[in-house]
Design brief:
38% helix; 3-stranded mixed β-sheet; alpha/beta; binds adenosine-5'-diphosphate
C-alpha cells in the first residue's frame, strides 16, 4: 500500500467520524477529493454545518486542494408502530399519545400520526388544537404538540366533522399525506389507527407497512372479542404483534386511592396469552387520567403516579424496538 492510499484511508476515517458515518466513496484524483454524504434526516442547518466541517478537514490534508461533496438523501427509514383497537372508546388515542410521550422520555425520536381521521382526538390530547401545519414542497411539516412531540392529525387539516363525508380513497389519500409528512429526525412513528377493521386500516397496513402493532382493549369480554378482530386484521397482513395493553383496568378511587376491579382482573392478560401475544401492561381507570388528557396534558409527561403505567408500557415497546435491530 503506497503512502497516497494510507492518507486517503485515514482521511476517510476522520471524515466518517466527523459525519457520524454518513460519508462514503472518498477518492482523491488530481488533488481533488470527492465523496458522497448521506444527508437524510438532517435539517438544512445541520447539513450546512456538516458540509463545512468536512470541507475544512479535507482541505487541511496534504495534497488536497479541492473538495467535492455529493449530497444524497437515502430515504430515512421510519419504524411505524400502529396502535389499534377493535372498537372506539377503549382509550386507544389516550394510549397512543402517552406512549409517544413516554417513548420520547426514554430517548426515542418519536412522532405521532392521528390516523383516526373521522374522529381525530390527538390535537386535543397533545394541546395542538387549532394549529395549521405548513408545507414544504408536497410534504406537510409536523406540528410540535405537548411533550414536544412532532405530530400530524386530520384535525390539523380540516374543520371538525368535515372528513366524515369522505369516501374511502380520499380518506386513504389523506392518511398517506400524514404518514409521508416531513418527519425529519423521527425514527419511530406511532400511528393512532381508527377503531375497527375498515378500509383505512387495510390501506394503512398494506401501503405503510407498520413494523408492529399494539392492541388496546378494556377488560370487558366484548371489547376483547372486538380486539380479536383487530388482531386478525394485522395477522393476516403479517404485521408483527408487539402486544396488548389493557386500559381502564380496575378503578382507582379518587378519594382513597384504593383500586377495585368491577370487571374482574387478569382477563386481558390471559386473553393475550391465549392469543400468543405479549402483555404490555395495564392502565387503571382514573379520573385524573381523563382530566389531564382532556386538558391536553398527557399524564405520561407528568411526575404523578399516572405516568408510571405508561412508562412501563413504553419500556416494553422500547425493548421490542431494540430486539428488531
Ligand atoms: P379511543 O381512541 O379508543 O376512542 P380515547 O382515548 O379517545 O378512546 O378515550 C375515550 C375516553 O376515555 C376519553 O374521554 C378518555 O379521556 C377516557 N379515558 C381513556 N383512558 C382512560 C383511563 N385509563 N382512565 C380514565 N379515562 C380514560
Amino acid at each position: 500500500m503506497g503512502p497516497h492510499m494510507t492518507d486517503i484511508k485515514a482521511l476517510s476515517e476522520r471524515l466518517s467520524i466527523l459525519s457520524q458515518g454518513r460519508t462514503s466513496a472518498a477518492k482523491v484524483r488530481d488533488a481533488t477529493l470527492t465523496l458522497v454524504l448521506d444527508v437524510g434526516g438532517l435539517s438544512r442547518e445541520e447539513r450546512l454545518v456538516m458540509v463545512e466541517a468536512l470541507e475544512k478537514e479535507a482541505r487541511a490534508a496534504p495534497g488536497i486542494s479541492e473538495v467535492r461533496i455529493a449530497q444524497t438523501e437515502e430515504k430515512h427509514s421510519i419504524t411505524i408502530i400502529a396502535v389499534a383497537s377493535g372498537k372506539g372508546g377503549v382509550g386507544k388515542s389516550t394510549v397512543s399519545a402517552n406512549l409517544a410521550v413516554a417513548l420520547a422520555q426514554l430517548g426515542v425520536r418519536v412522532g405521532l400520526v392521528d390516523a383516526d381521521i373521522y374522529g381525530p382526538s390527538q390535537p386535543r390530547l397533545l394541546a395542538s388544537e387549532g394549529r395549521r401545519p405548513e408545507t414544504e414542497g408536497k410534504q406537510i411539516i409536523p406540528i410540535h404538540g405537548a411533550g414536544n412531540i412532532p405530530m400530524l392529525s386530520m384535525g390539523h387539516l380540516v374543520e371538525p366533522g368535515q372528513a366524515i363525508a369522505w369516501r374511502g380513497p380520499m380518506a386513504a389519500n389523506a392518511l398517506g399525506q400524514l404518514v409521508d409528512g416531513k418527519w425529519d429526525n423521527v425514527d419511530v412513528l406511532i400511528v393512532d389507527m381508527p377503531p375497527g377493521t375498515g378500509d383505512i386500516q387495510l390501506s394503512m397496513v398494506q401501503k405503510h407497512k407498520p413494523a408492529g402493532v399494539v392492541i388496546v382493549s378494556t377488560p370487558q369480554d366484548l371489547a376483547l372479542i372486538d380486539a380479536t378482530r383487530a388482531v386478525n386484521l394485522f395477522e393476516q397482513a403479517a404485521v408483527p404483534m408487539i402486544g396488548l395493553v389493557e386500559n381502564m383496568a380496575g378503578y382507582l378511587c379518587p378519594h382513597c386511592g384504593e383500586p377495585s376491579d368491577p370487571f374482574g382482573t387478569g382477563g386481558a392478560e390471559a386473553a393475550a396469552k391465549s392469543m400468543g401475544m405479549a402483555f404490555l401492561g395495564r392502565i387503571p381507570l382514573s379520573i385524573d387520567i381523563r382530566k389531564a388528557s382532556d386538558a391536553g396534558q398527557p399524564p405520561a409527561a407528568g411526575k404523578d403516579a399516572e405516568a408510571e403505567p405508561f412508562m412501563a408500557i413504553a419500556r416494553r415497546v422500547s425493548d421490542w424496538l431494540q430486539s428488531q435491530t
